[in-house]
Amino acid sequence: MPAAATKPKPTQSTARRSVPLDLPYAPVAKRPLPRGRERQWYVTHNRRLKAMRLAIALLDSGVYTPRQARDETIRSTAARIGVHPPSDTTCRMVRALMCDHH
Fold first, then answer.
1. What is the pLDDT of residues 15-73, one digit of tens each?
2. Angle between helix 39-60 and 88-98 (nearest 10)
């Protein structure tokens, strides 16, 4: 039998259960942020979370490259998903997250 005709082995993570890709996203339970950090740490942390949410929403809407993700596109996506308008810094961070490295 040719090698191409053999059935691929399921990976360990999918062997035990099916992976529902079409179900809506359910966020994990929120935990309080660690106490005692400098204010800038919290600002940066929240900015990163916002940038990740926006990058995911852009990918879901068909924006796949940083070049397609102009500030206006990112801000209109933020309005659509109910996020405060992002700053220029957050927009740059969104594009950095979408950057494709080969």
1. 555 555 455 566 678 888 889 999 999 999 999 999 999 999 999 999 999 999 999 99
2. 60
At what angle are helices 88-98 and 71-81 packed, to 10 degrees?
100
Q: What angle do CA 6, 11, 12 make, to 5 degrees?
A: 135
Report the predicted TM-score, pTM, of the whole model to 2 decimal places: 0.68
CA distance 49 to 52: 5
H or E segment to which residue 6 belongs: none
For residue 58, give every residue at least 6 positions away whose Cβ sits within 8 Å of its Cβ, in sequence order, or none.
Answer: 68, 69, 73, 74, 77, 94, 98
Residue owning tokens 């035990």: 16
The CA distance from 69 to 66, in Å, is: 5
